Each structure stands twice: as C-alpha cells, then as structure tokens.
Amino acid sequence: MANLASIRRPVDSEMREFQGHFKEAMRTSVPLLDHITRYIVKSKGKQMRPLLVYLSAKACEGTQARTHVAATLIELLHTATLVHDDVVDRAETRRGFFSINALWKSKIAVLVGDYLLSRGLLISMERDAVDLLRITSKAVEAMSEGELLQIEKARRLDITEEVYYEIIRRKTASLIAACCAAGAASSGADPERVEHMRAFGEAMGIAFQIKDDLLDFAPTKATGKPKGGDLKERKMTLPLIHDLQTKSPRERRKTIRAIKRSADHPETAAKLLEDIQNGPGIAYAEQAMLGHRNRAMDLLKELPESEARDALMDLVDFTISRKK
Amino acid sequence: MANLASIRRPVDSEMREFQGHFKEAMRTSVPLLDHITRYIVKSKGKQMRPLLVYLSAKACEGTQARTHVAATLIELLHTATLVHDDVVDRAETRRGFFSINALWKSKIAVLVGDYLLSRGLLISMERDAVDLLRITSKAVEAMSEGELLQIEKARRLDITEEVYYEIIRRKTASLIAACCAAGAASSGADPERVEHMRAFGEAMGIAFQIKDDLLDFAPTKATGKPKGGDLKERKMTLPLIHDLQTKSPRERRKTIRAIKRSADHPETAAKLLEDIQNGPGIAYAEQAMLGHRNRAMDLLKELPESEARDALMDLVDFTISRKK
Questions:
Q1: Any chain A CB within 8 A of the CB of B27?
Q2: Per-block average pLDDT, block size 10, for chain B (324 residues)?
Q3: Which domains, ranges and CATH numbers included, belong to chain A?
Q4: Sequence-separated (6 or more) residues with CB below 8 Å from residue B265
Q5: Which of the residues B137, B149, B155, B163 would you substitute to probe the A interface, choosing the one with the greatest number of A C-beta atoms within 10 Å?
Q6: ipTM for this model
Q7: A231 vs chain B: nearest CA distance in angstroms?
Q8: For a Cys staple, B99 with which of B73, B86, B179, B224, CB 3.0–4.6 Å?
Q9: Smallest CA–CA distance from A171 into chain B, residue
Q10: What backbone torsions phi and psi does residue A23 show, to the nearest 5 degrees?
Q11: Quick check: pTM over 0.80?
C-alpha cells in the first residue's frame, strides 16, 4: 500500500508552492481575522483536496498557474465549510486542535467562514478563473443542500438506500468531484475530459463517505469498541439501512425500538452496535464501497498512463483502506 | 416628507417583477430548504436593497434584464447575512416573525445562508453577470471584515472616531454602495458613473448607520425610554465616543466606570443613557449624519434630472428621518 508521501511525490513542488498561495489568499488588514487565518494555516489538515486538484491537473494536461487558483479556491471553500461546521456541531476539537468555535465563539466562526468564501470568490475573479468558480459554486450549493437533506431525512428510520446515496453524493462527493474537475479544467483539458474527471471524483467521494460511515462501526484502537457516533445522533448509514431491509418485520420492529432507545440507554446502544458488527450490513456496505472504488479505477484507466494517474489510483486505495 | 410608496413609484413594475425572480432564484428540490425559502419570501422586509438597485439603474441608463440579476443577487446575499446573523445573535425575532434560528436551529441557519450565497453565485454566472458578482463579492468581504473589526474594537472604551467609521463603512455602507454600483453597472453605465454611484451609496450607508446608532439612544414609543441595546453590549457608537472625547480626564474616568458597571446595574445604565441624551454627542452625531447626507445629495445632483434620481434623494431623507 502506497503511503501519502509517495502519493504526493508527483506534485511535491506544487504542494509546497500551494502553502504560499493559500497564506497569501487569506491576508487581511483586520487583526483578529489575521490571527484566526494564521491559526487556520498552522492547523492545516492533510490537504487532500489541493492534492486531488494538482494530481488531476497533472494527470490531464499538466499543472498551470491556474491550477494554483483552483487549489486555493477549493481549500478556501473547504476551510469555510469546516469553520461553519464548527458553529454547527459545537465540536470541541477538530484535527486535534481546539476548534475555532471553542476558541472564539460561533459569531466569529460564521463571519470567518463568510470571509473565506468571499476571498475565494474575489481571487477567482481577479485571476480570471470564472470557469473554476462555476465548478466550485455548484459544489457549495450541493454541499449545503446535502447537509440539509441529511438533517431532514437521515434520522428517519425508514430512509432508503436511494436517499442515503443522494445525501452523500451532494454532501461529500460533490466537493471531491469539484476538486478533480477544477484540476482538469485548470490544466486546459477539454470539456469531456473535465466531465470524466468529475465522474471519477464523484465515484471516489462516494467510496470515501461509505468508508467514513463504516469506520463509525469499526472497533477503535483506544477502547476496542466502535465509536457509534452516527447511531448516537440517529444518523442512518448504509450498514444499518441494509440490516433493516433484510430483517423480518418482527425483527425490524425490534431493531427500530432499539435505535429509538439507544440515545438514552448506553447498554441498548452497545448491544445494537454489536448486532450491526455481526449483521450482513457491514459486508454489504464494503461491497458497495468497492463497487464505487472500481468505477473510480476504471475511469482512471481510461486516462493516458502517467505518474500522476498512478498516484490518483493509490490515493483511492489509500482512502478506502484508512483506519480512521 | 415622501413616503416609501411614492419613492417606489418610478420602479413599481420592476419591484413587482422582482418578487418572481427572487422566488425563482431560491427554488430547490430539498423539501426542508424549500420550506425555509418560502418562509423567507413570505417574511420579506422593506426590500430597501432591491429598491436601491432599481432606482440606481433607472437614474443611470435605465433598468435592464441584468438589473433583475443584480437585485436578485444582492437580496440573496443580504438575506444570507441576515440568516447568518440569526445564528450569531440568537435573536428571538426579526421583522416581527420568529427568527429562522429560533425555528430551525443554528445548524440549519448556517447551511441556508451558505446555500443562498451559492445560489447568488450561480445565478450571476449563468446570467453572465460576473461584473455584478465582483461588485457584490467585495461587499461580502467588507461586511465580514467589518463585523469582525467591530467584535474586536467596538467594545474598547478608547475606540476612536476613525475606527468607528472604518467599522460602519465596511459593515453597513459597503452593501448599500454595492447596491448602487451594481444597479448602475447593470444599466450599462460607464465605469466612472458606476464609481460615482458607489460613492453615493457609501455616503448614504454611513448616514444610515449613524441614524441607526442614534435611534438606540432615542426614547421609544412603548416605554418613553431609549433601548440602549448597544450600551448593553458595550458597543461604542458615535454619540458616546464623542462625549468621552469632550470630557475632562476625571469625568471620562467616571463615565468609563459607569459603562463598565452598566451591564450588571440597570440603574447605572439608565443614568448613563440619560447623560448621553443630555450630552453633546447626540447633536454631534446628528451633524455628522447630515454631513454624509449632504455628500450623498451632492453626488445625486450631478446626475441628469429624472424621477428616479429624485426618488433616491427622497429615499436618503426617508432613511435619516425614520423613527425606528
């Protein structure tokens, strides 16, 4: 299995340059904002999204000056949604740091998110990258629609697989698809190729989210038990949706009662998690994930051979094999 | 004094058409989102910003199809900031309705705001109105910077007039300036005229905000006493800033102690509000407001005579004469 360092290698110098572009993009004369954006730069995550942008560009016609605009725009946008998410979930930590929300409260988090969105906008207009902005704006629209759809539907115990896919396609896969499409577009690829890369990103994004949902049921290193965070929030994901579908009406009613009880009864929740781990849903979701992984790979195979293309393949497998 | 109905007259048919454009702009397939956007359409406020867009266009080269795009974009953006503001201040009511936040919680409010911003983006790109988007993106940037500057500086008791103006220019005047500039640009006005209208909007916006700050010290109809909300939040505005500047060091220290005490001591707050009402700051702020009003009027006088131009003049005076 390739590690992240070797996956990054084909775009190492671009990723190094990116740090400067990203920092520059957030420069401001407002001291408080400057303080926060420095903190954002410092607490950067794995920067998977810029990596996808650069690798996608390189796997098409090659990275250009505009590829930096695409990577900066997408990372600004992704950061804005993370910052807004901080308001939202009141998460105490993110990436091991205190969340911006915990440090400076939600008012500031909303404003900083809006500021980052506007910076992304202005940069893409200054740099004459309206095509890239169009790709990413659709992702912002889809992401907020997807999150709202999730709020509305994911707690319904009769949620179907179809709705589950609708949610994760918009909520997660749309931004990963935008990374790949914007990278391709920035390289000067033709519209068919841009669409091809978007489809690849969508398949990869769906596999990524199913993996995320599976990890919630996997035993953690610390406790040997699954986190079960989704179940606590009564968020229905693929393994549980499938288990419910395959049960007899009587068993289904029993499980539904257990789901309803589990928020207030840790023992019921623990038993339910054990049932899910032993049920058919885990293997079913893994199969579904592999299906999307294979679709992503097939799309990559249609690209001309290159180091960047192979790195994208490794990145797909890295994503679906991660342990957290 | 002209009333709002007569001010609206020159763009009555445009304002009627606007309702359809705005509704259409928020159409979505997500049921929850559809529910909320219908509520937004229903609880529409005075729609001062679309009105400014249409009057500005008409006072320049005339309203065009693109003027509807400008008005829709700005109202989406303004609505997004109101919705985000709901998260922020946890205000219980806005415009007499329950706030979106109170009804559907802050997670949803953040997402709906982001969705509205992305809709504005997409519409301006679909309609080939990148110039209008550029004008409004700068306003989003300025507004979030201004709010953050306010959080950082407005509670400092040694805040200067200069910083006060810096805050209100970004926080409030930038969007009003964007309305006028976008209206002018949508009509096909040349860049100088667009800049002229932006300057007009900025002057009007500053006068508008000083009026807002003055109203906080004015006796309310209900109680005969001022609301004093800014003082409660320790937000320093022009009347108080000026009063502090004109006091002897000893009196200044006394007032500063009173400001600090007033959050927890309603009697101290009431006494302080009375002092401000009787102090020189009110008249000083009124003079400053009139100065910006006059600058706005002078800029309008340079436009060719028209019904729309006169309506803009009336709108300026309407704004600074309002009682709430």
A1: no
A2: 92 96 90 84 85 98 97 94 71 47 66 90 88 92 90 85 96 97 98 98 98 93 84 90 95 92 88 94 98 98 97 97 86
A3: 18-210 (1.10.600.10), 216-300 (no CATH)
A4: none
A5: B137
A6: 0.82
A7: 19
A8: B86
A9: B111
A10: -60, -45
A11: yes
